[in-house]
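To: structure desk
From: M.T.
Subject: fold request, one chain
Message: Could you run this one when you get a chance? Sequence is below, nothing fancy, just the single chain.
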Amino acid sequence: MATTVTGKSTAAAKPAAPRRQITAQTWRAGLTRAGLLIVFLAVWELISRLGLVNHLFLPPPSELVSATGEMLGERRAIYGFQMTAYRLFWSCLLGTGFGVVVGLILGLSKVLRLALLPPILFVLSTPKAVFLPIFLAIFGLGTEFAIAYGVFSAFFYVVDSVVGGVDLLDERHRRLAKAFKAPMRYFLVDVLIPAAGPGIFAGVWHGLRQALAAVLVAELFSSDAGIGYMIRAYTNQFRADKTLAIVVVISVISIIVGVSWNRLEARMNRWRSVMAG
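Reply: Done. Structure tokens follow.
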């Protein structure tokens, strides 16, 4: 009996070594990234302080800290971030929502996939900026223009990713659900959506990124409020420090959201590794 217990304990302890190794590698990778970032900022500071580049167009990182604090203290900047967040919320919600629904439909119907997926992929490969004048003519200036363009930009990426996620569904599971005459709502919730989870998560993330880029472009192109408008205004005023401060703030927020989204995706799809094991 003692031998059996010892054997079980040894077997249970085996996966711990690879997990510790992965954790150590993650820490080393993080430290390497941090070191490279510090070196990059130090070189940037040195180049700017020595006057090797025009201080007006490339201020040192130390000045970006004060510029960020000054910008975030402006009422106009706070309002601009709020407007962009509002437009991004509706663009992402509508673009990813419609994209997930259409992607699931195309993934389940071979006829609709053959009929509609090629045009969707064609639009997906087309630079979205060429459609800006069309949206401007239809919606005019303002929030509706930015939201509509964000929805349009996000939709096609979501559809493509979700269709690929539906392809992950095991045909045996589909036939089994059909054999037991499972209601459509149970098939969607218990079979299809879990199987297509990676594609849905990837689609929503790509939709969020594309919606953000589209909203910023729309605000740069024609808007009187928002982050894009602030970038245009600061650029016209030759305030490179505040322009770069906006870039830093957006980058930090994007990194935090991206890491959080990856962890959520890993947690939601943990059952796949269990099934594979």
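Reply (cont.): The two ends are 27 Å apart (CA to CA). Let me know if you need anything else for the meeting.
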